[in-house]
Amino acid sequence: MTEPPSPDVRPGAAPPRRARRLLLVHAHPDDESINNGVTMARYAAEGAHVTLVTCTLGERGEVIPPELAHLGGAALGEHRLGELTAAMRALGVDDFRLLGGPGRYADSGMMGLPDNDDPGCLWQADVDQAAGLLLDVVREVRPQVLVTYDPDGGYGHPDHIQAHRIAMRAAELAAAEGHPIAKVYWNRVPRSTAESAFARLREELPGLPFAEAAGVRDVPGVVDDERITTEIRGEGTAPAAKAAAMRAHATQIEVAGEFFALSNELAQPLFTTEYYELVRGERTGAGREDDLFAGIGETP
Ligand SMILES: [Zn+2]
Questions:
Q1: Which residues does UniProt assign to the signal peptide (predicted)?
Q2: Neighbouring-strand partners of residue 233
Q3: 128-143: b or e for each residue (b if 16 or more CB lie within 10 Å)?
Q4: Cα-to-centroid distance, 164 and ligand 1 (Å)
Q5: pLDDT for 35-55, tens place per residue?
Q6: Cα 295 to middle of ligand 1, angstroms
Q7: Distance from the alpha carbon of residue 109 to the mean position of ligand 1, in angstroms
């Protein structure tokens, strides 16, 4: 993504940067909307530079709509890139990229499947090499904030684990080059919030188009409440933008009101407040932060 340089920029100088720059690293198209849709919509609307790097096209995902069930492999990857494009339009994000370009790393499939041994899949990728590709993005964008998964990838999917490793390694390499990312966050859900949301889901399940409910254990990144450092509340149009972005991933997600289901057809809550654990950088104040950029000065 290149922006035309403004006339007062010296030839050869980098284009002007926006004051606040947020980088999110995800495994598959749809993960960004489920985990961070409200956050991305909010910061994009506020004029921050929001950059999404997705590591694979998710071409081994299961397809929900019967009329699209014929899609698989490269055709599914291409279709999901179209879904991602529509989701980013819904969130107002124009800078989204596939790590190393579309198709560079293949979806690894669920943990334990023979797909994990595909030499072209992300699980088999050299982490330093992949982190080098991400470092190129970091050098260009110079984000102050990085968002990714915890070391278990939230729930143990090999591509999510690798996305975490690649993101954290790129952050290390950027710091070693002298331009550290000020704050690094992992996606989280506080246990008490998940439990109360599932209690409401069980009450409302008879009116929903889903036969069964998932459980708290099916939600990635659930931790004890004390570990949550930051929450981004869905205000204004952000919750609707998140729901629209999730709907855009129609091969993967079915949305119904405040709930959704993946291909396992188990209903779960659609969180319109998103939660984070700060793992690098300075926490501001005693309570939960309400801004990922809290405490970061506006640096050029
Ligand atoms: Zn995923």
A1: none
A2: 273
A3: eebbebbbebbeebbb
A4: 12
A5: 999 999 999 999 999 999 999
A6: 31
A7: 10
